[in-house]
Specification:
Elements: H1 2-26, H2 45-53, H3 57-68, E1 71-76, E2 79-84, H4 87-95, E3 100-102, E4 110-111, E5 114-115, H5 127-138, H6 146-169, E6 174-177, H7 178-189, H8 202-214, H9 222-226, H10 228-233, H11 235-263, H12 274-281, H13 292-325, H14 328-340, H15 353-365, E7 372-376, E8 385-386, E9 389-390, E10 398-402, H16 404-408, H17 449-466, E11 467-471, E12 480-481, E13 490-491, E14 495-500
Parallel strand pairs: 2-10
Antiparallel strand pairs: 1-2, 3-7, 4-5, 6-14, 7-10, 8-9, 11-14, 12-13
Helix pairs in contact: 2-3, 5-12, 6-7, 6-17, 7-8, 7-13, 8-11, 11-13, 13-15, 14-15, 14-17
Length: 508
């Protein structure tokens, strides 16, 4: 009986590999390495699902690419796609926009048919229209223009934002979910960048953006898993759709109001803020002048993208504080620098040397962006190669995935990748090209990367000078970073005790 079972298992394994070999040979992909499959029907699907349940999805991808090859092919119920951790392939993805296109159908662009940012925004678009829009916005987000954004953001930080923090601690230390507090902080910044006509408050925007993003994130707790059927069949799905519609409607009214102000005959309003630049960028699609309704719709898509970007900054600082909770000596050193160095003008941020090291390390260890997807078009490739592998045109378009987290946790380029070590960022340290991509690289690198670094430094400076922030969670409820795409998420609340900071020379 045992021999019969063993023979059946061996036969199944043989035919599984034989079937996959035939499929791969058919598309000319047999030379690309692949991890062993566990199921003839599901391919690598069940292995990936088990990794997700253990919160080890991206770690599984890293282990596979380290063991079998920097670029591998994976199978999911008859479908196959590439996953790459090869810097050479990432270089091609960054430079060859004709061959590697932004994938359509990515699930966090819309929800149940309701558009969130759509497929033509400054983040998700392709082709001439996207290139024209990006080129138009590049001046606003250029490093040379950060002084104007800083001058707008600093009074906002010192006024409404810090006042909100101070109101929380006026009666003494308080335990708060730092993610919610940071979300309100960063969404507040949009009000000083041209979106002051929004009717939603920063708290409402932060809550709604997180509600939208949580609809795409993996479930972890048993309670969340029990809610999954309710999520698909009851009011929760309807609520998320209404949340998206509510935000887009609010942005639409703000955009239309700005249009009316700018079109008034005697207007002296200058469209120099972010919203104004977005409106200018959406005047044309690269081939023709856009109709007014198309321009408004494009501005809404891009404004929703801005709100998502602000949430990325929230999660990035949340990850930094989570890492610092295990390294109190590093937090003390960073806070000491932030408290000692005044930040009155943009150039003062350059003096926050150790703070920048901590941010760079947080961007490495826990990047807010977790994966990218492109459609590889071998028929449009001059070399016909994906890295070291030749891909025939008969393979058609194939999805290729990559992950910032996987690149940042590869021990080949990052010794002791699990250790949070700001000191690795010495002045003479230069990462291996394309091994450090928190904002991605090339023509599709994040336009707002300079703004993100500036706002995160400004926020940390304001927090450190006015407050003490220490962990306050129970050991059983310690926050944990989700290692499953699409974006960074922290399981459990990031509960921190926030109290007013008293300088040593003021203590009694």
């Amino acid at each position: 009986m045992l021999l019969t079972i063993c023979a059946m298992v061996c036969t199944l394994i043989y035919f599984t590999y034989r079937f996959l070999d035939i499929q791969l040979s058919r598309y000319g992909l047999s030379a690309i390495p692949q991890p062993p499959v566990a199921s003839l029907i599901h391919g690598h699907g069940k292995m990936v699902t088990r990794a997700k349940r253990r919160n080890k999805y991206l770690d599984q991808m890293r282990d596979w690419t380290n063991k079998y090859g920097a670029t591998i092919v994976l199978h999911f119920t008859g479908r196959h796609f590439f996953f790459t951790a090869d810097p050479l392939v990432l270089r091609d993805i960054a430079t060859d926009l004709k061959c590697y296109r932004k994938a359509r159908g990515v699930h966090n662009r819309q929800f149940q048919g309701q558009k969130i940012v759509g497929y033509n925004s400054i983040l998700s678009g392709n082709g001439t229209g996207w290139a024209v829009k990006r080129r138009s916005m590049s001046h606003y987000f250029a490093k040379a223009n950060m002084r104007d954004i800083f001058d707008a953001a600093k009074p906002h930080m010192e006024g409404p934002i810090l006042n909100k923090w101070k109101a929380l601690v006026q009666d003494g230390p308080i335990a708060v979910d730092l993610i919610e507090l940071l979300s309100t902080t960063f969404e507040s910044y949009v009000f000083c960048l041209g979106f002051d006509k929004l009717e939603h408050t920063p708290e409402e925007i932060g809550f709604k953006i997180n509600e939208i993003l949580d609809a795409f994130m993996p479930l972890k707790t048993d309670q969340e898993k029990r809610l999954i059927l309710r999520y698909f069949f009851n009011e929760h799905k309807t609520r998320v759709i209404k949340t998206i519609q509510s935000l887009r409607s609010d942005i639409k009214q703000a955009v239309i109001q700005r249009f009316e102000e700018l079109s008034a005959p005697d207007t002296e309003i200058k469209s120099s803020d972010m919203l104004g630049h977005l409106m200018e960028a959406n005047k044309t699609n690269g081939e023709r002048k856009c109709e007014p309704h198309e321009q408004v719709e494009g501005c809404i898509d891009d404004a929703m993208t801005v709100l998502m970007v602000m949430d990325n900054m929230t999660k990035q600082l949340a990850a930094l504080f989570l890492f610092l909770s295990d390294c109190p000596e590093i937090q003390e050193k960073m806070f000491s620098e932030l408290r000692e160095i005044p930040v009155e003008k943009m150039s003062d941020l350059n003096n926050l040397v150790y703070t920048e090291k901590c941010l760079l390390e947080a961007l490495r260890k826990g990047p807010a962006l977790r994966r990218g997807i492109r459609k590889y078009m071998p028929g449009l490739s001059e070399s016909g190669k994906l890295g070291n592998y030749r891909i025939p045109e008969s393979a058609g378009s194939i999805s290729i995935w990559f992950s910032e987290y996987v690149m940042h946790h590869n021990p080949i380029w990052w010794p002791e990748p699990e250790v949070f070590d700001p000191e690795r960022w010495q002045p003479d340290f230069v990462p291996e090209p394309y091994s450090y991509i928190p904002f991605y690289v090339g023509a599709r690198s994040c336009l707002a990367k300079h703004m993100a670094m500036m706002l995160m430094k400004l926020t940390l400076s304001g927090i450190a000078k006015n407050f003490d922030v220490v962990p306050a969670w129970d050991d059983e409820q310690k926050p944990e970073i989700c290692h499953t795409p699409p974006a960074l998420k922290v399981y459990n609340k990031l509960t921190m005790k926030v109290s007013a900071h008293t300088p040593p020379d003021c203590e009694i």
